[in-house]
TrEMBL record:
Pfam families per the UniProt record, alphabetical: 4HBT, CBS, DRTGG
CDD domains linked to this entry: CBS_pair_DRTGG_assoc (cd04596), hot_dog (cd03440)
Keywords, comma-separated and alphabetical: CBS domain
SMART domains: CBS
Entry-linked PANTHER family: CBS DOMAIN-CONTAINING PROTEIN, CBS DOMAIN-CONTAINING PROTEIN CBSX3, MITOCHONDRIAL
Name used for this protein in its record: Thioesterase
Residues annotated as domain CBS: 256-314
Organism per entry: Ornithinibacillus halotolerans
Amino acid sequence: MATKHELIIQHIISLSVGSKISVRQIAKDLNVSEGTAYRAIKEAENIGLVSTIERVGTIRIERKKKENFEKLTFAEVINIVDGQVLGGRDGLHKTLNKFLIGAMQIDAMKRYTEAGSLLIVGNRVKAHEMALNEGAAVLITGGFDTEDHIKQLADEKQLPIISTSYDSFTVATMINRAIYDQLIKKEIVLVGDICTPVEQAHYLHLGNIVEDWYMANEQSTHSRFPVLDKKNRVVGMVTSKDIIGKDRNTPIEKVMTKNPIHVQSKASIATVGHMMVWEGIEVVPVVDESSELKGIVSRQDVLKALQQIQRQPQIGETIDDIVKNTVEDTDDKTVYQAKVIPQMTNQLGTLSPGVFTSLITEASSRHLLRLKKGDLVVENITVYFIKPVPIDAILLIKPVIIEAGRIYAKMDVEVYHEKKLIGKALLMAQIMDR
């Protein structure tokens, strides 16, 4: 039987896109407390079913697909530009396909304005009217208002007309940045994207015995299984080590490890990969906030995802991406080269300490791969010193392995500029074997 929380989520899903949602109305319609309704609405917001906008309220929106992150809804635009809705509230859930700045004559502007777009323009009432008639929403910059008949037209066509105090260039930059940030998020693979769903996963229950472990082991390639209670919550974990020498009729509850390590679906694969290496485990259960099992993720799943990411083209570029593209091999196979570009500097115009650690991590990772040791998962970095480095400086990075085992490595890294030592660090890491 579904819980009250699940019933509210199902009710929200059943509402049409654009419907307004209130805690009081949900509580009244479903006969639940306002506290329960509030928590469920917040969860719906977290999973992308609703959006809360200041001075507008909470509305049902269309959940975005991961591959459609390069588009924003008009409701999100309001939050980005700190805008105010002047009309067309019923269209806030709609997605904009592109935006254009109205810095031209009306006739020329009309050629570029199309349905589903957003026209960014100042106090030009005729341009507002033209955009709405062409099926486009309007974002008025400079904090200006518009005429009442324009607001009425926006309501009729269900196309938002929004006002913001920012200028056109700033608004365009803010929207571009929001799209860019979401493109970066698109590239971050989460556990929920790669885990085996609960319907296909192998697991045990508290009422099972050791014999059931052997049956699950034959049906799968794993030797590690989560143990669930009557509510499908993960309460334990059973591995081959736990059942060795035990009678096959022994209850699972007596041999399992209680309170096992688990992750939620929103965790990144980098996080779970580090956890697997650090703890030496092959399979981790994936749970929700109430510890109910949603799936399992194995080390093979993580490795496949990491290899797949490396083959994908990068769209949104992070600092780590910039560092990865900057570090180059040299003729000396023990030395790596990197150029300091403006994105790597701090407010003083010198190499940022954070980028310095990224540079030595990237060089050390390449060095281990060159020696066929495996992928590096940083455990600890100790920076002994770093001297100011100007823009356009060419750095030589020299990682030297002090100790290296099957799953562990310790490296001394020196960084030079114009033959002078400008930084030194000690890196300790786990090795994830390919």
